[in-house]
Amino acid sequence: MTKKASNPIQSLKIPQFIIISCKICAFFSTKLTVKYAAKLFTTPIKHKVPKRELDMDHKSIQHTILVPAINKNIVVYEYGKSDRKVILVHGWSGRGTQLFKIADELLRKGYATISFDAPAHGKSDGKTTIMSDFIESVLEIEKLYGPFEFAIGHSLGGMSVLNAIKDGLNVKKAVVIGSGDIVQDILDDFTSKVGLKPKMSTLLRDHFESQYQTKMDDYSAYRAATKVKIPVLVIHDNDDPEVPVKAAIHIHKHLENGTLALTDGLGHRKILGNQNVIKKTIEFIETT
Q1: What distance in Å separates the CA atoms of residue 215 and residue 200, rounded to the nearest whole number?
Q2: At 55, is the pLDDT very low, low, confident or very high (cuts 50, 70, 90)?
Q3: Looking at residues 21-39, what average pLDDT do you find?
Q4: The Peptidase S33 tripeptidyl aminopeptidase-like C-terminal domain covers which part of the protein (predicted)?
Q5: Where do the structural domains in the chain lie, given as residue ranges?
Q6: How confident is the model over 61-100, as pLDDT tens digits?
Q7: What CATH number labels 52-182+220-288?
Q8: In whole angstroms, what is the distance from residue 60 CA to residue 81 CA?
């Protein structure tokens, strides 16, 4: 207990001006609030590439490709040269170099990695995006850069990997780290963090379902998991403040061939650079 108290793991804070603006919108108009919340929900933060990721950034061969299914351009990173390829998928507000420590270890093991900046992320164009953009990007990259032996995804990238496999991505094994699960839970958490009443979560879901003519729950990770037959390693931290560990447990429950690995004290992002996590990931994909 003392260790956790001295090194607390905190979730990303919502800027106070966003919370205030949401409450102002809610005071005047429910319809306006839903539109504003939808814009916030689909707008990732573009972070500057941190120094720790610059080596992968500089050594990668980068291309801009069009994803015809969504008519959006994305930047793809080719890291290393090998016929044995692994696709890496970052999470919300992440980048194609975010899984660099995993990528470095894969290179040492003789693999090459292909990653990308999802639409509205990193060096890719756009300001807004949704999970289906991630999924279509993965499927298009497979056509252009595949075949891939394995897929590894973090957070929303984990959800996207499972959905992409459900939709035809052909890999031998997959690893999902800190993956979200039920879309409605994600909407509930978002509306709570921006200071809106619980009913706004349902209205936000209805807004997206009307706009995209699809059921949001169809993208929930546990639903995709029921269609995934290959071995999947689900890694999650018990202290993750962004995505509760119950998400991993629920996903694992719905996998036909799943392995669950829980960590402590690593949170949502630090887990990507943990040597034990990386070792477990490599051992999992290399075990026949």
Answers
A1: 17
A2: very high
A3: 86
A4: 226-286
A5: 14-43+183-218, 52-182+220-288
A6: 999 999 999 999 999 999 999 999 999 999 999 999 999 9
A7: 3.40.50.1820
A8: 10
